[in-house]
Amino acid sequence: MRIIDRRTVSVLITVCLFLLVGSIAYAARTTLIAFLIAVFFAYLLDPAVSAAERRLTKGSRGRAILLVYLVFLALLVLWGVLVGPRLASEARSLGTALPGLLDKVESGQIAHSIGSRRGWSFNTQARLAQFMTTHQGDIVNAAGSLGKRAAGLASHVIWIILIPILAIFFLRDGRKIAESTIQTVHEGGRRQLLLGLIEDLNGMLASYIRAQLTLAVISLVVYITVLEILRVPYAVVLGTLGGVMEFVPVVGPLVAAVMIVGVGFLTGYQHPVILIAFLALWRLVQDYVISPRIMGHKLELHPLAALFAVLVGGEVGGVVGVFLSIPVMATLRILWRQYQRYTEMQGAIEQGSARDVRAA
Known about the structure:
It is built from 13 helices and no strands.
């Protein structure tokens, strides 16, 4: 009788290896996230690179990548020339005014200031001022937490330079990496499994990233245009933030709406009901009209599954976790579906072999 079963040892070794890999991944999570974002950036530019490779550079992928990067840089410069001065001016103005506005919120003075302009009764002003004074600790903590998060993101600004550089390698060698990975598997069924996984993941990620960019650009244009028409203070800054936040599923648009309404409230905007109605109407149009047409059915995720993924991603990884939650959930679904196909195929092969044996 064996004291130690070989299968038990194999399972324990596998579990230990998974734990070790998980620990290393957690320790290097910042670098891994940067590589993931570089992959997403590569997926974003790949259609333009492929088109330039076919039509302009005569099959030279390196020159096509260079051309697309130059065009992308030119678009950024154009955006900076057209909108940059106004954006920088409003950002400086908002940054200068915000501490004073927050002080008024903490002391409750903002309630009397806004209430007097809108004709509120003194009792209403007093109740709102008392509420703000009572919850000033929560307001200060929320502002401090936001500042810490902004400082944390600023500390990783170097990745803004490194991510496009990393994306060049994925754009140039991504196909070779995929083919080399497939070649490492020799057994026919497993190779088909890996090939199906790579094809499905490639289609899902490409659709997701391009759809998110399209939705963000549409939101940015709509926010800036409508906020300018409504004469909301700091319209360009708020519209730009709203467009950027569209990249963060579910939570991003909500945070953008809160920022826009909050700044409008603090600066004494005269038509808050119209502003809130616009934000609600735009959310409905974006979520139920535009997004389904652009996103299509590539992700094949139920809204409840998407919401669950976003909540878990936020708990585990914060803003980055929320951003990655949808593709991670879609990847798990692809893995499960491909595994089911593989097991069905293996079962069919085994049944066929058994019939051949019985026939012989």
